[in-house]
Amino acid sequence: MKNKLTVLGVSVGLLFLLSGCGDEQNDTTMTNTTTGQIGNQTSVSINSKAQQANYKSLNATHTMAINGQTLKFKTSYGIEKRLTNNWYFTVPSTVELGITPLTNVKGLSYQVNALYADVSILSKYTRYNGVRQDSLSTNYGQLKNGGIDVDAAHGYTMPFQVEGINENETSVTVINGYGSSDTKRVTEKDLRNNAYGGRLRVVWTLLVTDQRTGKQYSQTIQDSIGLPYKHATNK
Q1: Is the pLDDT reported for residue 38 higher than 60?
Q2: Long-range CB pairs of 141-147, under 8 A, 24+ apart, other chains included
Q3: Which of 15, 199, 206, 225 is least surrounded, with the fewest CB atoms within 10 Å of its CB?
C-alpha cells in the first residue's frame, strides 16, 4: 500500500521576505555544520549520539499485503533542527532517510532494492515549481539477494547530502533563464519571495523473499514531505 505524507504544514498563501541589503546571510555557522574542528588538539572525538540529537525526525507507517500476510514498515526522515520550518535552498544540508520492517514473519525476508529521493521547490509560479534542488538514486540490484537485508532489529539508513541550488547548474539555468542558458546566481531572498517551501519526495523499492519457495515480490513505498520556510516579515 502506498502512502503519501505531508508534514510541517506547507501554507499555500504564505510569502517570505528577508530584510537587509548587501550579501545575504543565513544561519550557517562552524558549529552547526561540522562534527568537529581541526585545531591544536592531537585528536578529535566525535560523539555520534550527540550528532544525531541535532536532527528532528518524522516517522510514517506503511502497510502492504503479500501472500495473505500483512506487513508493516516504518519510514523515517530527519533534518537538522536549525532547518525545521526554515528550509534553505541555497545552502547545502543533510537529510537522513531510513526504513525498518515492523513485523518479522517466519519464512519471509526483506531487502531494500532501490532508493530514490529528491528535494524540489513548491511554488505557484511555473518558473519555480518543481525545480529540483538535488536528487539521490541508489540501486542494490547487483547484490546476491537483490538488496540490503533489513529486519525489525536492523533497519536501513542513508544520509542524503543535499547540495545548494547554486551548485546545481540545471536548477540555476531553469530558474533564471526559464530554459535558457542564463546562469546568474540564485538568491535565497528571490526563492522565499516566490516559493511556499520545499518538498522531499522518496520512493523505496523493497523485495520480500519467501525463503521456502525462493520467490521474490517487489513493492514500492512513497512519501512526500513538506519543508516550509520560516515565516518572516519586515518591520
Answers
A1: no
A2: 141/113, 141/114, 143/111, 145/109, 145/111, 145/207, 145/209, 146/111, 146/113, 146/207, 146/209, 146/216, 147/111, 147/112, 147/113, 147/114, 147/206, 147/207
A3: 15
Predicted model pTM: 0.78
pLDDT of residue 7: 37
pLDDT tens-digit series, residues 96-129: 999 999 998 999 999 999 999 999 999 999 889 9
Is the separation of the CB atoms in 62 and 221 below 8 Å?
yes
The whole-angstrom separation of Cα 32 and Cα 55 is: 11
Asked whether the beta carbons of 73 and 100 are under 8 A apart, the reply is yes
User: CA distances (Å), 17 to each of 100, 119, 192, in order?
Assistant: 39, 21, 6
Whether the CB-CB separation of 64 and 1 falls below 8 Å is answered with yes
Q: Does an H or E element contain 175, and which?
A: helix 169-177
For Cα atoms 46, 48, 51, give the angle at the middle one, nearest 5 degrees.
Answer: 90
Q: What's the rounded Cα separation, in Å, for the pair 55 and 148?
A: 24
Stretch 127-143: mean pLDDT: 95
> The C-alpha cell of 8 is what?
510541517
- Tell me which H or E stretch contains 51: helix 48-52
Q: Is 197 left (phi over 0), alpha (psi -120 to 50) or beta?
A: left
Taking residue 81's Cβ as centre, other Cβ atoms within 10 Å add up to 12
pLDDT, residue 95, reads: 96
User: How distant, in Å, are the alpha carbons of 50, 61, 72, 213 from that of 64?
Assistant: 35, 10, 6, 20
